[in-house]
C-alpha cells in the first residue's frame, strides 16, 4: 500500500473523524483524567504541526503532530493509525516526518507521553524502534502509573 504523509490542517472533516477514532480508542485504556488529549482546535494552533497519512485513494489513515514547547523541546502528540493499516509502517512514516521537521526547527530533544499498560505495547515498539528511550516525568505531566514517557535526543543540547 502506498502511503503519503504531509502537513495538513486538522480542521478537515476526515481528520476530525480520525482524531475522534483515536479518542474512542483511548477511552478504555486508561482513566480519562490521565488522557492528555489535544482537541483538533488546539492541534491547529501556531505551536503545533499536524501530519496526516493518506492511502493511495486519499483516505486519511493516520495522524501525528509536533508541538513546539520552545527551548529546543518538541513533543510528539496525537499519534494514531487506523487498525486496518497497522503493521504497514504508517506510524513509522508519521514519526519520521515529525522527527525531520523537529530537526529543521532546531529541536534537540523530542519527547512524548503515552499511556501505560498492555494496550500500549504497539506504541512502545514503534517509539523504541524509532530511537526513543524511556525517561522520567517530563513537561507538566503528573507522575502517574498511567503514563509512560519517552525522549529522543536529536542533537546535543545547546550551550546555555
Description of the structure:
The structure is a single chain. The relative contact order is 0.17. It contains 4 helices and 7 strands, in the order E-H-H-E-E-E-H-E-H-E-E. With 160 residues, it is α+β, with helices and mostly antiparallel strands. The longest helix has 15 residues.
Task: Please give a handful of descriptors for the protein shown.
alpha+beta, about 160 residues, seven-stranded mixed β-sheet
Number of strands: 7
The shape, in one word, is globular
What's the N-to-C terminus distance?
46 Å
Rounded to an integer, what's the Rg over CA atoms? 15 Å
Fraction of helical residues: 25-40%
Number of helices: 4
Physical arrangement of strands within the biggest beta sheet: 1-2-3-4-5-7-6
Strand content: 25-35%
Kindly report the average pLDDT value. 94
What layout of secondary structure does this protein have?
Blueprint: E1 4-7, H1 13-26, H2 40-43, E2 48-54, E3 60-68, E4 73-81, H3 90-104, E5 109-115, H4 121-129, E6 133-135, E7 147-153
Parallel strand pairs: 4-5
Antiparallel strand pairs: 1-2, 2-3, 3-4, 5-7, 6-7
Amino acid at each position: 500500500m502506498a502511503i503519503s504523509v504531509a502537513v495538513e490542517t486538522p480542521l478537515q472533516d476526515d481528520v476530525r473523524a480520525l482524531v475522534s477514532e483515536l479518542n474512542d480508542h483511548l477511552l478504555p485504556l486508561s482513566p480519562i483524567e490521565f488522557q492528555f488529549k489535544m482537541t483538533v482546535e488546539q492541534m491547529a494552533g501556531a505551536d503545533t504541526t499536524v501530519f496526516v497519512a493518506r492511502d493511495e485513494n486519499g483516505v486519511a489513515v493516520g495522524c501525528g503532530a509536533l508541538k513546539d514547547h520552545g527551548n529546543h523541546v518538541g513533543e510528539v502528540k496525537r499519534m494514531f493509525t487506523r487498525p486496518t493499516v497497522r503493521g504497514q509502517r504508517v506510524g513509522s512514516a508519521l514519526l519520521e516526518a515529525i522527527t525531520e521537521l523537529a530537526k529543521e526547527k532546531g529541536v534537540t530533544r523530542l519527547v512524548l507521553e503515552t499511556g501505560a499498560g498492555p494496550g500500549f505495547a504497539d506504541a512502545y515498539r514503534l517509539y523504541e524502534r524509532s530511537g526513543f528511550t524511556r525517561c522520567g516525568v517530563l513537561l507538566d505531566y503528573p507522575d502517574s502509573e498511567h503514563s509512560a514517557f519517552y525522549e529522543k535526543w536529536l542533537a546535543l543540547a545547546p550551550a546555555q
